[in-house]
Amino acid sequence: MAREQTQRPVEEEVQATVAWLERRGTKRNRDGMARYAIPSARAFGVSVGALQQLAKRSGRNHQLAEALWRTGWYEARMLAAFVDEPPRVTPAQMDRWCRDFDNWAICDTVCFHLFDRTPHAWKKIAPWSRRSDEFVRRAAFALLAALALHDRNAGDEPFLQCLPLVERAARDERNFVKKGVSWALRSIGRRSPALNAAAVKVARRLEASPDGAARWVAKDALKDLTRRRSQ
Q1: What is the pTM assigned to this prediction?
Q2: Domain holding 157: CATH number?
Q3: Considering only CA atoms, which of 136, 191, 144, 187 is closest in space to residue 203?
Q4: Burial 134-167 (b: 16+ CB within 10 A, else e)
Q5: DSSP per residue, 50-83
């Protein structure tokens, strides 16, 4: 399908892609999404594996990604994350897409497969971490976790500078925020012995906090961080 579409205008390709997604969607997949707190009102129920295969056949295409995002369909937006061209993603686009995040899956997929590969990734963490929107704040820490896992050129310093952001946001009791914060803290601690030690110090302070969310983050992170340090 994708090879036949390569010469089509973008909007025509989007229409064909959405039609393909609709044909491939199943109620079983939509029901499964609901069990994982992923809204299914604007979803067809297509597996992530099928989306990744379609993305490989389609290839990278920035204009297509933007057009797919505008449809509002869950799977189309997931596909947009896989086909967009990281060097062409702008800071304004990152902010615009981030404001559209309405569930953890689209937030994490975009951050983990696209945003962390852009030249603007580091500059978005701090401002997003200060936003009150649940999934914008989660995006800050999903992006930080993705950078910890994928940015092989960064030294320890950028991650050390982000630890105060992690510590501050750990007091956010919202489930998807605190899980994102824990993910970032654990991922930073995996990068090097120095970062592991710094992450453990943060977790120990959170462990002693009177705040329940902070203690939850500490407990979740320390299980991983102290095990890794002792290995």
Answers
A1: 0.93
A2: 1.25.40.290
A3: 187
A4: bbbbbbbbbbbbbbbeebeeeeeeebeebbebbb
A5: HHHHHHHHH---HHHHHHHHHT--HHHHHHHHHH
DSSP 108-171: HHHHHHTGGGSTTHHHHHHHHHT--SHHHHHHHHHHHHHHHHH-SS--SHHHHHHHHHHHHHTT
What token pair was written down for 80? 């947009």
Host domain of residue 206? 101-231
Q: What is the spatial distance between Cα 86 and Cα 34, in angstroms, rounded to a whole number?
A: 30
Q: For the chain, how many structural domains are there in total?
A: 2
Contacts with 119 (C-beta within 8 Å, 6 or more apart), sequence order = 86, 87
Q: Specify the pLDDT at position 3.
A: 46
Q: Is residue 10 part of a domain?
A: yes
Given a cut of 70, the residues of the chain with pLDDT beneath it are 1-7, 228-231
Residues 72 and 20 in one domain: yes
Residues 25 and 105 in one domain: no
